[in-house]
Design a protein that fits this description.
With about 575 residues, the protein is an alpha+beta fold. The chain has 16 helices and 23 strands. The protein has helices spanning about 5-15, 20-45, 75-85, 95-105, 110-115, 130-135, 175-180, 205-210, 220-225, 240-270, 300-305, 310-315, 340-345, 360-365, 435-460, 540-545, and strands at about 50-55, 85, 90, 190-195, 280-285, 290, 295-300, 315, 315-320, 330, 335, 375-380, 395-400, 400-410, 410-420, 480, 490, 500-505, 510-515, 525-530, 535, 555-560, 570-575. A six-stranded mixed sheet has the order 4-1-5-9-2-10, with helices on one face.
């Protein structure tokens, strides 16, 4: 207890003539006060809200109403988007199911968590989302049919309940609603995966007739899309006709509408149970789906020609919070790896060390945050890749409005660079015309690949697969983003700041070394900063006009403790 408070109580007791009785009873009073404080802390702790995570398979966001589609394919999803936080630029970590879903449940990129091909699992004892929640008393039932596949082993879910009366892999979500009907003890973490909109596109009635006209473009291509779960792109040689395009899009839209219907039944049931006010609800997808954007359909595991273009990496992400709090539209790029730390942050649970995602709660609350690079990787054939075969491998990095894709075929590596603001469909490769931007992003991509490999190595060596606490990687040099090499900064009213920005952890400590000017105007030294950005300013015009006397400005950065230095970066300042 605070000494001043204790002294005041004793002084009051003296005046009342009960000083000696108070001294005698002091241990009892201390116990009572301590119990009261503990009770108060418990009352101030945020409620233990349940968590419901619903993941959808193969969702092309361009066909979802909340993302601007003109057809009424997803009314229930659209309603939910109006009740929560809608992320317009959410990215998967891969172009097939297992790596993306495991990234959601671990907060790690595929190379780091290890599920990059069929048959692989996360390390034993890894602190996954179910395990992190279990420490706060959450139960996590194993309702997803995917949990029988090695890719989803050791994630921390309980065995599948045996009293649900339905098969765990039944097409609709009856198992989910039956589990909720049993009124389980709260709090719980409930994950369910819908695989409705996966190939083949075979929607049931009445959704089929609402969107698809029977007999529409009855070609071999449409028949295979309507019947085959795997349709190799190499088997399709002819150009798609306008009639075939309409038929395939109609079938896909009907699949989405049916999936949205099932989703709506579950949401209505949750409303009936008044669960939406006692839970955080997240709806997202494992990956996107190509719906003829490049002349074919499907994704890595179904076409065996997967890419990392937007139709496969852009996914829906909606978070609805208890009581409908935090409604709004968020346009900043985010990733599947951010979902786990966001859930834990909202529930006031300390995240495990080493997560590669970051909490999105500041964005959800309307705060500004630094845009950081987002990573994706995939094989071209996904789950269908033959075991042990070195297949083509693709990696990608998204930085703000820029996207770089690297494709490795044997010993050959090719690059594509896109300006997503001007070219959201990724049609115009700028790798040659934007060489400076391309070089920066190649460095960022290489750094991320090394970091993923380093974390994967830690997981394999660490005790029971636990990551050590590492804010980024001190053994990797930061990559400077701003200013660009050779830039000349000019005075602009309202923008009178010098901003240094680099790729690195927002939670790490850095040292900046500078060498400014030359001759008798040479200044040099070092100073420390926290995070991966440093602003100087606002700088008044009178001061700015003196800065050119100290050209050139040179600086380099390293992460502490004792990380390698970045190359020197040089820029100049103009008074004009």
């Amino acid at each position: 207890m605070n000494p001043e408070l204790r002294g005041s109580i004793i002084e009051v007791a003296k005046k009342g003539g009960i000083y000696w009785n108070l001294i005698w009873c002091w241990p009892i009073i201390t116990v009572v006060l301590a119990a009261g404080c503990a009770h108060l802390r418990e009352r101030l702790r945020p409620p233990a809200y349940s968590v419901v995570l619903l993941t959808l398979d193969s969702i092309n966001v361009r066909h979802v109403g909340a993302y601007g589609y003109g057809r009424d394919t997803t009314p229930h999803l659209d309603r939910l988007a109006r009740e929560g936080a809608l992320f317009m630029r959410a990215y998967s970590t891969s172009a097939w199911t297992s790596p993306g879903l495991v990234s959601i449940l671990t907060g790690l990129y595929p190379t780091a968590h290890g599920v990059r091909e069929r048959g692989k699992s996360v390390p034993h004892g890894l602190t996954t989302l179910p395990r992190a929640l279990a420490r706060r008393g959450y139960q996590s039932p194993g309702l997803s049919y995917l949990l029988s596949i090695p890719n989803y082993a050791y994630l921390g879910f309980s065995p599948t309940p045996t009293d649900l009366g339905v098969a765990p892999d039944e097409a609709d979500d009856a198992a989910l609603r039956l589990w909720l009907a049993a009124r389980p003890q709260e709090p719980f973490f409930l994950w369910y995966h819908y695989a409705i909109s996966h190939l083949p596109y075979r929607p049931p009635e009445p959704w089929r007739s609402r969107f698809y006209r029977e007999g529409e473009a009855e070609t071999e291509f449409v028949r295979k899309v309507n019947t085959l779960p795997v349709y190799r792109k190499s088997e399709h040689e002819m150009e798609v006709t306008p009639g075939e395009r309409k038929a395939v899009e109609d079938l896909y839209d009907a699949e989405l509408a049916y999936q949205d219907h099932l989703l709506g039944k579950t949401l209505d049931y949750m409303r009936k149970l008044e669960l939406l006010d006692r839970a955080i609800l997240i709806i997202t997808a494992d990956h996107g789906e190509e719906v003829l954007e490049r002349g074919f359909v499907g994704h890595a595991s179904t076409s065996l020609a997967g890419t990392l273009h937007g139709e496969l990496t852009n996914i829906p992400l909606i978070m609805r919070f208890p009581g409908g709090r935090y409604r709004g539209v968020i346009d900043q790029p985010v990733s599947q790896v951010d979902i786990m730390p966001t859930i834990l942050d909202f529930l006031d649970i300390k995240p495990p060390a080493g997560l590669q995602g970051r909490t999105l709660m500041p964005l959800i609350r309307g705060e500004k945050t630094v845009v950081r690079p987002l990573f994706q990787e995939t094989t071209t054939c996904g789950y269908q890749c033959p075991e042990g075969e070195n297949s083509d491998h693709l990696t990608s990095i998204v930085m703000g409005s820029w996207k770089l894709i690297s494709t490795r075929k044997g010993s050959k590596v090719g690059f594509e660079l896109y300006d997503l603001e001007r070219d959201p469909d990724e049609r115009h490769n700028l790798i040659l015309s934007e060489s400076r931007q391309a070089e920066i992003m190649k460095q960022v991509l290489a750094r991320q690949i090394l970091l993923n490999q380093s974390l994967a190595s830690d997981l394999q060596r660490g005790p029971q697969g636990k990551l050590t606490s590492r804010a980024g990687s001190p053994d990797l040099a930061p990559i400077i983003l701003l200013p660009h090499s050779g830039d000349t900064l000019r005075f602009s009213p309202g923008e009178t700041r010098i901003v240094l920005e680099w790729v690195g952890s927002e939670a790490a400590d850095y040292t900046i070394e500078y060498r400014v000017g030359s001759g008798d105007k040479l200044l040099s030294g070092r100073f420390g900063v926290r995070g991966n950005r440093k602003k100087f300013g606002p700088i008044p015009l009178s001061t700015w006009e003196m800065l050119p006397n100290y050209n050139p400005f040179r600086f380099r950065i390293r992460q502490e403790p004792d990380g390698p230095w970045s190359p020197w970066r040089e820029f100049t300042i103009s008074a004009g």
